[in-house]
Design a protein that fits this description.
Blueprint lengths: L3 E14 L8 H10 L28 E14 L2 H12 L5 E4 L2 E11 L18 H13 L4 E4 L2 E3 L6 E5 L4 E5 L7 H7 L5 E2 L2 E2 L1 E2 L32 H13 L4 E4 L2 E3 L25 H13 L4 E4 L2 E3 L6 E5 L4 E5 L7 H7 L5 E2 L2 E2 L1 E2 L32 H13 L4 E4 L2 E3 L6 E5 L4 E5 L7 H7 L5 E2 L2 E2 L1 E2 L32 H13 L4 E4 L2 E3 L12
Antiparallel strand pairs: 1-2, 1-4, 3-4, 5-6, 7-8, 8-11, 9-10, 12-13, 14-15, 16-17, 17-20, 18-19, 21-22, 23-24, 24-27, 25-26, 28-29
């Protein structure tokens, strides 16, 4: 809040005697006591009244003079509370009231005066001088002057600077700026630059401006604002985070985004929390089988995931193993597709079905705290086609290999998790002194580019062939036959309007003479055509 000046105006009546014999007056004696420091402010009666209220002024009027004073007290306060409190204080007093026996305050008033507005002017003064020494003398005068300098009441000169000095002789004219002032860009381009320039401004021009312009003050420094921006990045792959870390580490800061805007630094503050998954086995001893049934019902009715506390959830719960024992036997059965591993099955004996070395029930209680294990996750299936090249000097080796493949049952297990689903001889190349032939077997064919490159030595179909006349050097083999295309059959009815019966006869002859199927385009054929209905109108 702006400070407000308050003026407290007090009107005081002062009564003094005109007699020289001061000691003979009781009220004068009181004044002397006031001067000596004796406090008599408890006397509330005017000096011309006695305790009975009788007016003594008429009796001794010649001995009293009355003086009236108006006293103004200036109070500066920036808080409204101070002003309100002073108003309340004045309103609570009864006027007139006596300060001492001879001094009475008749009334008090409070008035507020707003602060004066401050106006700031910049005045350019042009000085013509025939000697440079005048400029030096003026510089020295300003250096010695103390600012602010009071011109008159309410007017101060806060500072003074020499901004522009123009020196001219017969050969050249230069107008230079001083005290960090500069010429604007339009003056630099108009009059020519005679010194250094920066950001479109210059400190010296080569001619005298005629329009009365002067060097301008340096621009106020721009305020710098600093912002911290949080950017949230969602990434399903941790490699993205690592790539971002490497990018930030390799970046040089600050980075200029555009003029006046820079990125001073960048940091990764929060990385996604890693998720840890635990499997906890809980062993429950119960004397009644009904407890197990109650637990089954409880788990079936529970919705998962179940939040335990912030950051911890139970994703699922299962009863895996139930061991029941009586006087005659003990059985430990697995539930929910869990199974006993092979070592537990062989150690404790199997009391149910077994598969792939695992079992669902063992005949004794494991003492080492083992439980049934969850079913293994299904493995991903990958299919590979492997070409094997065999060099043989005898054709009998090829025949032996054909017989071996024909007699093999597929799929053939190589090791756990690896099977050979099928095996075929695709390409057989035979070469002698006169010729070389590379033939395809088992409906495999050479692609068109191999047929045209090496020459065909057998029949060809649809640009493919089964035999080429030289050995491919790039390691190519015959390719498997393409998968058969699906065939779609459509019946299309065509209506023909004809005014002459001869048109119908001509169409019959055309269909009878046509050979079917007719190829319309690749992959499209007309298998047959028939006239089904003829309507003749009389």
């Amino acid at each position: 809040m702006e400070p407000v000046m308050m003026k407290l105006r007090i009107i005081i009546m002062l009564y003094v005697t005109s007699s020289l014999d001061i000691q003979s007056l009781s009220h004068a004696q009181t004044v002397s006591e006031e001067v000596l420091g004796v406090n008599k402010w408890d006397m509330m009666l005017p000096p011309y009244m006695d305790e009975s209220g009788n007016n003594l002024k008429q009796e001794r009027q010649v001995n009293w003079k009355s003086f009236k004073y108006m006293i103004s007290i200036k109070i500066n306060s920036s808080r409204v509370m101070v002003q309100d409190r002073l108003r309340t204080l004045l309103q609570g007093n009864l006027f007139p009231f006596s300060v001492s026996q001879n001094v009475i305050v008749t009334k008090m008033n409070l008035s507020t005066t707003p602060p004066l507005k401050l106006f700031k002017y910049t005045t350019d003064i042009k000085i013509n001088a025939s000697r440079e020494g005048v400029i030096e003398q003026f510089r020295d005068l300003m250096r010695k002057q103390k600012f602010p300098m009071c011109v008159k009441k309410g007017m101060n000169i806060s500072s003074a600077n020499i901004t522009t000095v123009c020196l001219s002789n017969s050969s050249k004219t230069e107008c230079k700026c001083e005290n960090r002032y500069t010429w604007p860009s339009e003056q630099c381009s108009k009059h020519g630059v005679c010194g250094h320039s920066q950001n479109g401004t210059c400190g010296c021009i080569s001619s005298l401006p005629t329009e009365g312009v002067f060097c301008r003050p340096p621009p106020a420094p721009l305020k710098s604002f600093k912002y911290t921006i949080d950017i949230k990045i969602n990434a399903s792959n941790e490699a993205v985070i690592e790539h971002l870390r490497a990018l930030i580490r390799g970046q040089k800061f600050p980075i200029c985004v555009k003029k006046g805007m820079k990125i001073s630094s960048a940091n990764i503050t929060t990385a996604p929390l890693k998720s840890f998954k635990y499997t906890i086995d809980i062993k429950i001893n119960a004397s009644k089988e009904a407890v197990i049934e109650h637990l089954r019902a409880f788990i079936r009715g529970q919705k998962f995931p179940m939040c335990v506390k912030k950051g911890i959830k139970i994703s699922s719960a299962n009863i895996t193993t139930v061991c029941l024992s009586n006087s005659s036997k003990t059985e430990c059965k697995c539930e929910n597709r869990y199974s006993w591993p092979s070592e537990q099955c062989s150690k404790h004996g199997v009391c149910g079905h077994s598969q792939n070395g695992t079992c669902g029930c063992i005949a004794s209680l494991p003492t080492e705290g083992a439980f049934c294990r969850p079913p293994p996750a299904p493995q991903k299936l990958f299919k590979y086609t492997i070409d094997i090249k065999i060099n043989a000097s005898k054709e009998a080796v090829i025949e032996h290999l054909r017989a071996l493949i024909h007699g093999q049952k597929f799929p053939m297990c190589v090791k756990k998790g690896i099977k050979i689903s099928s095996a075929n001889i695709t390409t057989v190349c035979l070469s002698n002194s006169s010729k070389t032939e590379c033939k395809c077997e088992n409906r495999y064919t050479w692609p068109s580019e191999q047929c045209s490159k090496h020459g065909v030595c057998g029949h060809s179909q649809n640009c493919t062939c089964e035999c080429i006349s030289s050995l491919p050097t790039e390691g190519a083999f015959c390719r498997p036959p393409p998968a058969p295309l699906k065939s779609f059959k459509y019946s299309i009815d065509i209506k023909i309007n004809a005014s002459n019966e001869a048109v119908i006869e001509h169409l019959r002859a055309l269909i009878r003479g046509q050979k079917f199927p007719i190829c319309v385009k690749k992959g499209m054929k007309i298998s047959s055509a028939n006239i089904t209905t003829v309507l003749a109108l009389q």
